[in-house]
């Protein structure tokens, strides 16, 4: 159920350069790949932030400091309340498959965590391919391992794992079904290379609930789709990536 | 306290109307609350044909507000009439159809299509959307053009016509008088103020359309001033709009001379803002000593 809630910050810690993990005590529940609209004090529009984990009594958000709003967010300490609206959007489906590959690049990784958790609950074999620029930016690799996922890492500078992008790792594997989130070039490459799976898009949003038409993309027939409502997760091949 | 407001064609149970473009056709908000609590709904602009609108990014944040350049994205008036209006009929609220176009004849086409729809109670002419390159801006900023499209719309319309004015003019009373003389039944003001933001990383405009319409609390003082000016210049009912976030803002618009209000961007910040304002309004009117909406309207320029 979509709701507005004053959530209480339990923790808000830096886990990599510019990357923060915030746990919010709240009653809100969510499906993997959904997001919340966060009302950051001192700003006007809400910030769409993907949900990393749903614990039952809290939501975990992992976000990157990219502008004024997220910079303010990073300064908020435990005990403060933060108004959130959600859960919003269409997330990653948990399909009846034997094995799934989850591909994440940088700050696109967080929504894959809850996705992996749900697949592991169903005993699905999960291989997670995570891409980062360099070694010090790696986060959550151990968390995925604890879920029982096979974790493979790519770094642009080759300091850890395969040198290059997530695609360099994927090329070496069998990928029957992939669910991915990350930078646009990565999603484009995945959409071109694999017929079966889902990708999650990022967009500037206003309402976050499908009313304002601020975040539209085009499908293959030129029809408008709302990233916030019809997505952010779309089946591979559905959206024209520009 | 009774909150109802009687305007040409509109029997509003309260003066709160979500603004066009900020509420779609109500479907998303109906998941959150019963739309029958609303005085009315100004539905998203209809054009004769389907429009995809502008490229993205279409949204940028500003201090106390936002810029948008959606570009009148809609499925076209026939689709709206066949798919959105019948769905809206389930709610006990007054539907105002926002009419837009790239040329004068577009307004007539949309109106002629909607004339036989029982659910539409009034038209709101969008002559001020600043984002459409060929048309919109031209009509709304020139008194002669504004009057001409108003007259064409009035000749075609079988329902009252409200004209939504652009604030991007030197003297808004001049435009207001011109559309009043052309037969408008009411005025809605203000539409968004044209603005721009530049992305410091690229040095280029942040919006793909380059310019966008500024809305949100940032524009409220401009809207209040313009409602105040127009209310004294023309004898037409005014629906005030611009930066409303709570019931006290509504009272400010009533005092400025508006008879009802539209709530726009705040629906994005707090999707429950309209029912909240409706709930708060009687208390706020009482707090400032009003026994009715009427008593508050235009108080700012009335002799007391």
Keywords:
heterodimer; A: 242 residues; alpha/beta; Elongation Factor Tu (Ef-tu), domain 3; Rossmann fold; Dihydroorotate dehydrogenase B (pyrk subunit), domain 3; seven-stranded mixed β-sheet; six-stranded antiparallel β-barrel; 5 helices; B: 304 residues; TIM Barrel; four-stranded antiparallel β-sheet; 11 helices; 16 strands
List the helices and strands and how they pair.
The complex is a heterodimer of chains A (242) and B (304).
Chain A: E1 3-16, E2 19-25, E3 35-39, E4 47-54, E5 58-64, H1 68-75, E6 81-88, E7 99-105, H2 110-121, E8 125-132, H3 141-146, E9 150-155, E10 162-163, H4 166-170, E11 178-181, H5 184-193, E12 197-200, E13 216-218, E14 224-226, E15 233-235
Parallel strand pairs in A: 7-8, 7-11, 8-9, 9-10, 11-12
Antiparallel strand pairs in A: 1-2, 1-6, 2-5, 3-4, 3-6, 4-5, 12-15, 13-14
Chain B: E1 5-7, E2 10-12, E3 16-18, H1 27-30, E4 40-46, E5 59-62, E6 65-68, H2 77-88, E7 94-99, H3 104-114, E8 120-126, H4 136-141, H5 143-156, E9 161-164, H6 172-181, E10 186-189, E11 193-195, E12 198-199, E13 204-205, E14 212-215, H7 220-233, E15 238-241, H8 247-256, E16 260-263, H9 266-269, H10 273-287, H11 293-296
Question: What's a concise summary of this model?
Answer:
The complex is a heterodimer of chains A (242) and B (304). Chain A is an alpha/beta fold and 242 residues long. Helices cover 17% and strands 37% of the residues of chain A.
